[in-house]
Amino acid sequence: MHQALYRKWRPKTFDDVCGQEHVTSVLRYEIKNGAPSHAYLFCGSRGTGKTTCAKILAKAVNCEAPVNGSPCCQCPSCRSIEAGSATDVLEMDAASNNGVENIRDIRDEVVYTPSALRYRVYIVDEVHMLSTSAFNALLKTLEEPPAHVIFILATTELHKLPATIVSRCQRFDFRRIASTVLADRISYIAREEGITIDPEASARIARMAQGGMRDAISLLELCAGGGAAIDTKTVDEMMGSVGRDRVLSLMRAVANADYDAIFASVAEAVAASRDLEVFWQDLLSVYRDMLVIKTTENAARYLDLADAEAEELTSITEGFSKSTLLSHCRLVENALFAMQKSNAAKRMIAELTLVQLCDPRLDTSPESLVARIERLEDAAVTGALTRAEAPREPAPQKAAVKEPKKAPPVASDPPVAPKPAAAAAPKAGGRVLTRLRGFINCIERIRRDNSMLASFIGEARAYLDEQKRVVVILPSAFAEMMLEQNGGRDVLRRALSVELSREVRDGELIVEVQGAPSAKNDTVIDDILSAAEGGQ
Questions:
Q1: CA-CA distance, 341 to 170, in Å (whole number)?
Q2: Is 463 helix (H, G, I), strand (E, B) or coil?
Q3: What kind of fold does domain 427-532 have according to CATH?
Q4: Which of 168, 239, 314, 414 has the fewest Cβ atoms nearer than 10 Å?
């Protein structure tokens, strides 16, 4: 009878357990010193070795000749436990035996000494499934069991266990196994089984297993079912994935708003009978990697990517801001939930979401609005946004239509003054002043150190004159008096120097008092509107 690979290659000693050295080292030390605990709690995600270590521990405490804390697997005790014929080692699945009567049976049995082994071992898998009454029945026995009894509890959901149970056990947290460890183990098993597999395919399987050894070995067996050599294409076909390269191509299409390439990618995935949910999960994974690259200095530490793939993804990430990536992640995540609820409309959900990713104006969520405002702020500060570049209806066309209908100018008519340039601001005393966009940032910098001064000059407006001097117009003479006291002028100059990326000397700062009382506050929205309207 065929035996599944994950069962065939299940570790038999602590030395064979991969990626859980922090657990196996402690267990081996306790066995070597003859001091095992009376109760253990193994918790962690699926496929990380909890039940395997529980069985190895049951053999180790009963082994007649342990080797460095691990079972010898040769003595009668080890062989009987391995064969499942040892009556003193009881493995119970709490998912199907979760009643109080099952725990009462254990409580009644523990008083008897082992029939053949040194210890009677109870392995309770998925212990979080026990009922409340069952936990209560287990409490006293778990706290003070007889000297010949050892309890080993295993769970994937630690938060569901009562604190009274957790406090009575020696707890071990099983971590997700690193992808490099999984890939090495997969390659080793493939060599032993005569399976040909590429290193890239091993890495792809390890990444898809998400830290679970059992899942990784099961995927290897699935991919090897055809008898041919395993490469990345084989892995993608067996898993229903479109492949990482195609997802990266789709990301480039989103960055360039290439709608033809976007619809072609979805159509290709549907025509090849790919699972769009798997495809969407790959897309969400790419967005996560891009966010890591955008927000961290040492992204390679948190990414499980080859060097060439990391470089390509870095180049794609340069076309997105952090706020845009966050907005896209929300849209992709919501689309994944919608796909899981609607099987028939998966393609439509995917296409509509991708179109939204290309055009942020179609998304009115707060994250999308923040991303749009951030782009406007950047354009306003750098001066990159002009009337010709602003996403508005083309006003020149309307003027061109009305142009022939205009009557020729009469000699007595006054000449029409041309509109001021985008950077021009109102003249003051013969000067041409240009509004200093981002002055609100200076106020916020001052507020962090001197909130009182910021409150007095918070309603001021700032301009640049023809000589690039800063002209600050204050709302009142009182505000001017407060600015000139206690080094306030120097504080303002330092904030302006940071904003302008150059030193603003004392002679380059001109402070005046506003004559008209109707001056408006200089806010971020004012900066954005001024930039979008061409500075007029």
A1: 41
A2: strand
A3: GMP Synthetase; Chain A, domain 3 (3.30.300)
A4: 414
Bigger pLDDT: 524 or 388?
524
Q: What is the pLDDT of residues 449-470, one digit of tens each?
A: 788 888 888 888 888 888 888 9
In this prediction, residues 178-201 reach a mean pLDDT of 90
By mean pLDDT, which of 216-225, 260-269, 311-320, 523-532 is the weakest? 523-532
The answer to whether the beta carbons of residues 53 and 23 sit under 8 Å apart is yes
Q: State the average pLDDT over residues 216-234.
A: 86
Residues in the chain: 536
CB atoms within 10 A of CB 336: 18
Residue type, 214: R
pLDDT for 390 equals 42
pLDDT band at 384 (very low <50, low <70, confident <90, very high): low
Q: With 60 as the cut, is the pLDDT of residue 181 above it? A: yes
Q: Domain 244-367, CATH 2.60.40.10 — does that match?
A: no
pTM, two decimal places: 0.61
- Number of Cβ within a 10 Å radius of residue 29: 12
Residue 425: DSSP 8-state: -
Nearest-angstrom CA–CA distance, 191 and 193? 5
Cα–Cα distances in angstroms (integers) from residue 271 to residues 266, 347, 349, 466, in the given order: 9, 11, 16, 63
DSSP character for 365? S
Instruction: Tell me if residue 136 falls in helix, strand or coil.
Output: helix
Task: Give the H/E segment covering residue 183.
Answer: helix 179-193
Q: Which CATH number fits domain 5-174: 3.40.1080.10, 3.40.630.30, 3.40.190.170, 3.40.50.300?
A: 3.40.50.300
Token pair 């240009």: residue: 434
Closest of 125, 124, 151, 172 to residue 20, by C-alpha: 172
